[in-house]
Amino acid sequence: MFAVVSDIHSNIEALSVVLADIEKRGIQKIYCLGDVVGYGPNPTECLDLIIDRSEWCVLGNHDYAVFYEPTNFNYGAEQASFWTRDVMETDTDRARSDKRWRFLGELPMRRTLETQLGPTKATVDFVHASPRRPINEYIFPDDVYTNPAKVRVLFERIPHICFVGHTHMPGVFLDEPDFYLPDELGGAYPIIEEEKAIINIGSVGQPRDKDNRASYVYVEENKVHFVRLEYDFETTMKKIYAIDRLDNFHAERLRDGR
């Protein structure tokens, strides 16, 4: 049994609620798909929690932007990366600061588990964005209609199951190709050996599917369960508004889930 979280984006209110729910379910292992930082007001606090609580994390494009340089970012996202870097660099606790920088600098682009999930033997890949371009390729639900060739190529890159984030839109891609929202699956997807799937787990800290509740998944036996949780987004919004270098849009989108 394990949980998968992604796209926290420096939102400590959302992350705290998600971690509490994971603990309440008795789940011991947490895997993170990256973008711990970016956009939001509490980067160091979120990094500390992920460092302490997760088994491991893979590299997201916003993690990359803070450690290296923003690539193909809009102005607001770019400025948030620079602000996050400044916050991390000015922490006076050098040991704690060094631990965070070392964590970001050592993040791999991909992790793979060979495991038994209930009755199912599974190979599970974990990337931030896509199996082809792990850091920054978007896989949108509409791609199954507008660019099915792209989806088929992505499925050629995985042996079985791949967990992704990046678009902040939860759901399951199958290699027909097709896409299913969590509600269309009854909130859970059963992993079977004969079926490949790319599973987007949604975003903890900045949902974009018109549902402002924090999103994550947990796997019990061979079922992937999608979870949505309400959190105090208004507090997060107020913090963003109070920081001049963070774009107000990144606060407003939290209310609308966009």
From TrEMBL:
InterPro entries assigned to the protein according to its UniProt record, in alphabetical order: Ap4A_hydrolase, Calcineurin-like_PHP_lpxH, Metallo-depent_PP-like, Pesterase_MJ0912
Pfam families (alphabetical): Metallophos_2
One Gene Ontology cellular component: cytoplasm
GO molecular function, one term: phosphatase activity
Calcineurin-like phosphoesterase domain span: 2-220
CDD domains named among the record's database cross-references: MPP_superfamily
Signal sequence range: none
Gene3D superfamilies noted in UniProt: 3.60.21.10
Transmembrane segments: none
Coiled-coil region list: none
Family indicated by similarity: Belongs to the metallophosphoesterase superfamily. YfcE family.
Name the UniProt record assigns to this protein: Metallophosphoesterase family protein
Lineage of producing organism: Bacteria, Pseudomonadati, Planctomycetota, Phycisphaerae, Sedimentisphaerales
